[in-house]
Amino acid sequence: MDFTLSEEQLMIQQAARDFAQQELLPGVIERDEAQKFPTDQVKMMGELGFMGMMVDPKFGGSGLDTLSYVLVMEELSKIDASASVIVSVNNSLVCWGLETFGSEAQKEKYLAKLATGEIIGAFCLSEPEAGSDATSQKTTAIDKGDHYILNGTKNWITNGSSADVYLVIAQTHVEKAHKGINALIVEKGMKGFEIGPKENKLGIRGSDTHSLNFNDVVVPKENRIGEDGFGFKFAMKTLAGGRIGIAAQALGIAAGAYEMAKKYSKERKAFGTEISNHQAIAFKLADMHTQIEAARFLVYKAACDKDNGANYDLSGAMAKLYASQVAMETTVEAVQIHGGNGFVKDYHVERLMRDAKITQIYEGTSEIQKIVISRSILTSK
What we know:
By secondary structure, this protein is of the alpha+beta class. The chain has 11 helices and 9 strands. It has helices at about 5-25, 30-35, 40-45, 65-80, 80-100, 105-115, 230-265, 280-305, 315-340, 350-360, 365-380, and strands at about 120-125, 140-145, 145-160, 165-170, 180-185, 195-200, 210-220, 270, 275. The relative contact order is 0.12.
């Protein structure tokens, strides 16, 4: 077992850290307050190759491994989880899904622009009555020969108003249940496609989350991904990789909060000495560091499984389950270490605490991860 990062991976990690400190940190509190999408920063991340990290260079991507992607996600998330979730969706759910399962024509048309950040994508699975139960799709795509007629509503869509390309999961053959679901590429501006109001969220407020409405949208048959009825498998396979990205986001949020708490504990004095010298604080930091390291190795293991062509359903689910739990617990403790200062926005940790919660919910709740894990361990020999 070798946990040593390569020279290239260390350079990528440092580049992401520098970008986060120099470009994301300034204005991050104001973007959170105003729910402002980081347009300029997303463009720069595209120029750095962060928006299509695992995409083949022939399609404009960086051609890097999953572990490098995880390293970037962690560094960005230490500072701005709103920016990192944009990177996660574009990489894990949109680019990976298109490159792995899309046709050559679809890759030529969409992937190069997505991989370079010229445009960004959105993944549309959740509905008002189909969140964790992804089989209960009410959005319909009726087959009309050379096109589909798309009707329905999607909600909680990251990049909802900022995306140009939307991968929409919809039911075509109701009688076939989940085997009758398709994945369609929908473009912004298609007639009948409407973007609903922005959600006013607890955390990751800089990312734009919207409901989407489809009213008799005509989608060409060539915009279907894979064979007829492949949509549910497409969604599940794509989400399995997406969990690794969100696990890395949770890891970054936790690590960022820990680093801020550690720094503060060496500066803040109480009872005549820095609070880091008090066992009550030192033990909190010890627990935080240990849990973060454990989460980090779970996340790295899942990334390596994916890179090595191994099944990563179990390792990805464990990484997301544990890293999101650590993110929540660590950020709460970071606020506690900061005391009253932790409750105000200037010290950043209250924002990280708010951002942490969503990692236990999206791309499969913690409860869904436990279902994935328990099924895997109980069906294995």
